[in-house]
Amino acid sequence: KQMTIWLFAEERSGSTWIITTIAAMLQMPFAYVEQDGIVPDGVHQTHDFSRLVDAHGVLLRTTRRDVDEHFLSWAILTRARTKHSAWYEHPFMPRSGQRGCAIEMIKKLSDDKFSVAREDVQRFLDLKRERNRLWDGKAAEKQTIFYEDLFNGIDIPQLSLKNFGFNLLGNYEKIPYNKRDVVVNWQEAANWIYEGSR
Length: 198
Hints:
Blueprint: E1 5-9, H1 15-26, E2 30-32, H2 33-36, E3 43-46, E4 58-63, H3 67-83, H4 99-111, H5 118-136, E5 142-146, E6 154-156, E7 161-164, H6 166-169, H7 179-182, H8 186-197
Helix pairs in contact: 5-8
């Protein structure tokens, strides 16, 4: 049976685990749209919500319910990607055989303490609002998946998946670090998020 699944991913929302797990469980090919293009029938992932215009099939979206935590993850990821491109390689999710390298990466990340500006918070909130607008405006069979819910398992009835989540096959092994030690003005950022979300 042919099927097309689109996953619209917000950064740091479990999307990599979701796309690879769904593709494996349903034995379907998948592609990261920005890197690999589009496979005719299969699972597609993109961060570009403007692609909702032409997307068809089952549409999924991943995000986080905790906006403060989401912002901190997004800010640290953005900092690592833009300020440390020489060593940035997804240091948050070590695979087998890469843990030693990832520990060194995460140490550099944790040592790079920085402050965010109000403009960073505004850019993040504007991005979320635009994604909400595009997602809400798409008339289709769709479901939003919250990262926090994956720890207990969720149902995706469109794909006949029950109790789908990290409890099935395990999450990527995360190296622990305190985001509030990295973003030194995290409380100020939380206040800006609160003010900007009202």
